[in-house]
Amino acid sequence: MSDHRIRALDVHILHIPARAVHSHGSGDVAGINVALLELTTDSGLVGWGEAAPWPVFTGTVEGAAAALHGHFAPFVLGADPVQVEPLMARAEATLVGHPEAKAALECALLDLAGQIADLSIAEMMGGISRRSMPMSFSVANPDFDADLVDIAALWEDGVRLFKLKTGFADHGFDLMRLEKLRGLYGDEIGLRIDYNQGLAAHDALRHVRDLEGFRPDFVEQPVKRHERAALAAITRAVDVPVMADESVFGPVDALEGVGLGLADIYSLKVMKSGGIRRCLEVAAIARAAGLGVYGGCMFETSIGHAAGAHLMAALPELRLGCEFYMSTYYASADIAETPFPVSDGQVHLPEGAGLGVRPDRDALARHRTGQMTARL
Ligand code: MG
């Protein structure tokens, strides 16, 4: 027990336009829409967390804000922030689903607990296995010529991992882009493919087989999240590793996936699992089953990316990198006091106790479209 109590809960709803539209097998995204959670203690400490929903994947920003303000505030106000598991159990018992709101709550609690203990979140999760991790950029602009210009600039910045979003146009467009990138950058480029559920189950296998010749590191979520038999059949049929993203939210999905032979790799996302610690449970199941893991993200600000970076830093093993590029390369503006650290194609763990990243108040005011407040 600590002698700190949470006395205020604020939800900041933000919209940050994107530099360019990104297209996916599940639709277009033109900006970042998040609900930032700010918890303030009676001792004056402030903890931050982010809910970054994607409506076709996890939920809505309106739902996340309502969960935080309407359903979680009643038991969060007055609580001791270091009691993370009991408070998250309350959140679970109060509201089904809403993993992004639960991720925001857990992150803000861990940020406070870390400041109280003078430890980073990664240290509280068991320690720092790595301070830097390779960053993957998602190639998702329907205007591929514009993407080629961006890729060239990213290459100059040291980025070597590129994930093609496929299945939003025709198969020929996907093959053309893979051929072009493999031809331009040779074996030095790490190519990955993400269909975001974009293929029809009855027709998916031949598409995936066509792409195998370009030697991708993995093919991600070719079919709909519930088409688990089809995903398992593709995983069995091809040599290229298959990654489950939309099909595996939390540890229950992860365990069931092992039984089904669903995939070779799981994409870990704080937003879909409902927090860093649930992601570590997914990672533990994957490790026990001999599966790989990858650091995925939603359309997040620096706050959400920092939560992901602490998760990735605490993992015992990480071979496939992570994709925390949004605040640096996708958003038209960052809201952090100091930019989320990305350089030389690597994501770096933020320094300092707790989360190590906090928003700039002026930037919050510029991008805020709504605010909710609850006081003790
Ligand atoms: Mg994905």
By CATH's scheme, which homologous superfamily of the largest domain applies? Answer: Enolase-like C-terminal domain
Q: What is the averaged pLDDT score?
A: 96
Q: Would you tell me the structural class of the helices and strands?
A: alpha/beta
The level of helicity is 25-40%
> What can be said about the biggest beta sheet?
7 strands, parallel
CATH topology (fold) name of the largest domain: TIM Barrel
Q: What is the total number of structural domains?
A: 2
What is the H/E string? EEEHHHHEEHEHEHEHEHEHHEHHEEHE
Text of the CATH class of the largest domain: Alpha Beta
What is the number of strand segments? 14
Give me the side-by-side strand order of the main sheet. Answer: 5-6-7-8-9-10-11
Low-confidence stretches: none
Beta-strand residue fraction: 15-25%
Shape: globular
Number of helices, counting only DSSP H or I runs of 4 residues or more: 14
The small-molecule ligands in this entry are:
magnesium ion
Span of the ends, CA to CA = 19 Å
Please outline the helices and strands.
Elements lengths: L5 E19 L2 E15 L4 E6 L9 H16 L7 H11 L4 H19 L3 H4 L7 E3 L1 E4 L4 H13 L4 E5 L5 H15 L4 E5 L9 H9 L6 E2 L7 H10 L4 E3 L6 H10 L4 E4 L1 H4 L2 H14 L2 E4 L6 H13 L11 H5 L11 E2 L2 E3 L12 H7 E8 L1
Parallel strand pairs: 5-6, 6-7, 7-8, 8-9, 9-10, 10-11
Antiparallel strand pairs: 1-2, 1-14, 2-3, 4-13, 12-13
Bound molecules: magnesium ion (MG).
